[in-house]
Amino acid sequence: MLNDDACYRALSSRDSRFDGWFFVAVLTTGIYCRPSCPAMTPKRANVRFMPTAAAAQEAGFRACKRCRPDAAPGSPEWNVRADLVGRAMRHIGDGVVDREGVAGLAQRLGYSERHLHRQLVAEVGAGPLALARAQRSQTARLLLETTEIPIASVAFAAGFASVRQFNDTVREVFALTPTQLRASRKPSTRTQTSPTPTAGTLQLRLPFRRPFAAPSTFGFLSARAVPGIEIGARFGYRRTLALAHGAGIVELGAPDVLDSAPARALGRATDPAEAWLRQGWIPCQLRLSDLRDLASAVARCRRLLDLDADAEAICAALGADPVLAATVAQTPGLRVPGHVDGFELAVRAVLGQQVSVAGARTLAGRLVSSLGEPLAAPESTVTHLFPTPEAVATADPASLSLTKARATALIGLAEAVAEGSVVLDPGADRDETSARMLALPGIGKWTVNYVRMRALGDPDVFMPTDLGVRHGLHALGVAGDARSAESVSQQWRPWRSYALQHVWAAASADKTNAHHQLARPDEEKIA
User: Fold this and answer.
1) Is 466 one of the catalytic residues?
2) Is 268 left (phi over 0), alpha (psi -120 to 50) or beta?
3) Helix H or strand E segment including 94
4) Does residue 167 share a domain with residue 21?
5) Which of 7, 33, 37, 301 is catalytic?
6) Does the annotation mark 33 as catalytic?
7) pLDDT per residue over 132-142, tens digit each?
8) 333, part of any domain
């Protein structure tokens, strides 16, 4: 959290870079805004700065109808922090409180409900229930403004326990009744939905922090797209989602190019893609079998594209380094692609040990075809959900088309996740998860670091034994052996995960295979 003077300077300059970092509560009007709100800047004595929208709502302020602070990008702080508060914020964003209550959240984190509440109030100005309530209100606004679902059904889809609670919250947060909020929407925000009140298709806009190297991010995902569950192009990506209440399909970016082979081959940006990149948002279309999964699906999509990253701070830190300065200047805003499911990412990391990216895709595709659950309503080439831990754990090793050692490692990982000894949720303790994964047969440091970086969102991961790192550092004019790589990476802390993306990009530019593992005696022995 910035000090109040710095916050007021950001407010006075209407600096959109701080949207989501903090919120401005205006005492004279009783509203709270983004720092970039176009309204007249209030006097310094009349404002208070809040770390979250929930804190502003708890203090009795309502959301500004002009700048819509509830739709601001998320704070990058909660993705970076590995402490109790950071883990709790990631769990709340994924809908844990709505599904399991505060008791379930506290149990996941390993603390008492009282201690958890005290820590959250001290750090973010609101307890877990208030934070979940603020997220429900945003979900309710989305459903009211973009669908024709009956208002009573919106209440339960957004996670409210009763219609009365829903009505009271919407009036308190937006100073409008649900009926008035729906009537005030613009025609352009409306989308077609299915006739059922619990399922539908939504068109959303996911704001991001500039700069954002969209072609690199979509290219990374496209190169690793597993047949049956995902497909990608230079400016578009589609995949299936296994959510708490049902299945879903998400399309990010420009989905019209996904089913066009010439467009994928050319990799050309469309005019709409250029437009939304200039405006600072990514188109997102969600097809959900149960709208109660909306908030969780949005949170996972944001993590997948790393939209909340503090890109300017990362560029400033890495761009000042003589080794990375040129590649950062060439591709500012390079993100660390996350994932929508930690177990899936871990399985794919095991399959990717000592094989090429194309080989890993083939192995994962076979696993999906044999163990994945077919979708009731497939979309083009997206036909399955990724196999569950239980399905992989009970599979016949002989049926996996893998070497004995790799099959043993895969099944051991699935058993550990299924029984709960290894937790790969967004709010998992990164150090504890890493230690428990390392204790499994066939799992080494490369795999654990890859999972830690992409599934658990650690911004400070580096892989000195990776072959792509060796080639990338050589291309950047630095010795690429493991000891030298580890030494040079220390100057990139705490953003080594982002530095790794630039090193891999340098390796790709040098026409090398940018994502192989270098076998070492202390690493995995998967044949």
Assistant:
1) yes
2) beta
3) none
4) no
5) 33
6) yes
7) 999 999 999 88
8) no
